[in-house]
Hints:
Number of helices: 8
CATH class of the largest domain: Alpha Beta
Radius of gyration: 28 Å
Strand content: 5-15%
Number of strands: 5
Shape: elongated
Largest sheet: 5 strands, antiparallel
CATH superfamily of the largest domain: GAF domain
Order of helices and strands: HHEEHHEHEEHHH
Structural class: alpha+beta
Amino acid sequence: MIAHTREDILIDTFATLADTLVAGYDVVDLLQTLVENCHTLFDISAAGILLADEVGELHVVASTSEASRLVEMMQLSAQAGPCVECFRTGRVVSLPNIDDSPVAWVRFRDSARAEGFASVYAIPLRLRKTTIGALNLLRDSPGELRQQDVRAAQALADVATIGILHERTVRESKTVRDQLSAALNSRVVIEQAKGVIAYTHGIPMDEAFTVLRSYARSNQLMLSEVAERLVDRTLTIPRPD
């Protein structure tokens, strides 16, 4: 169904964000859709999103215009501005008149002015105590953003945050699963290698493991690597004294 009313667009946006919880998706494409819909839904001139990577460094990942992208890049370069402050504090930062920017934000102020922006709201992408980025809403005229728009923008940002964190959790869980799978596979080979040592040297399995482990450590090799070479018959471990 094609959305025509503001309510339709808002519902469709929430539905799109909710889909991230049950299906694979492209994070950048999702956030680009979010800023474009914010631009349509709210009384703003442009929107953009800064997202933190795994080490906490912010990156511009979506914007509705090159002008808003340049303003966000300036914030990152200066490490100061409403979006950066929003990310650091996890709170909404309201700047109804860019001329009232703190002294520390002078580079942001000048860049925003040059691109024709007069006010900005920064909405945190936050879940409980975890803030992963910020949504920038820019206007070409000074003044307050309507509170219902601020609440709706925060709700959209919250759902997007849940989706992103869900994707990261799945990705990290997959890494853990892969590591666990590799560990389990290695354990199978190690058991086989113990059998080889026990048979060739006529010693118990427990002692065979001690021999295997001691050889790996003394030669600064991974236990799984030594086990694989033993099973492949490309390595022979001398009988212990």
